[in-house]
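[Discussion] Sanity-checking designs against the backbone

I'm trying to build intuition for which residues belong where. Below is a structure token string of 49 positions. I'd appreciate it if someone posts a full sequence so I can compare it with mine line by line.
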């Protein structure tokens, strides 16, 4: 899941909440939405291969 931060950057969070902290894991922060979407596709590819 991608969320926009107050600073104008985009951050990718995991879909599931972390059991210990009960929050979503930060999977990276990016300057543009396109860069965040590209990295999310890379994450999804890596999970399947």
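Best answer:
Here's mine. Compare freely.
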């Amino acid at each position: 899941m991608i969320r926009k931060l107050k600073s104008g950057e985009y951050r990718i969070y995991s879909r599931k909440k972390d059991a210990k902290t009960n929050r979503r894991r930060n999977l990276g922060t990016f300057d543009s939405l396109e860069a965040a979407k590209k990295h999310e596709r890379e994450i999804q590819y890596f999970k399947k291969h």
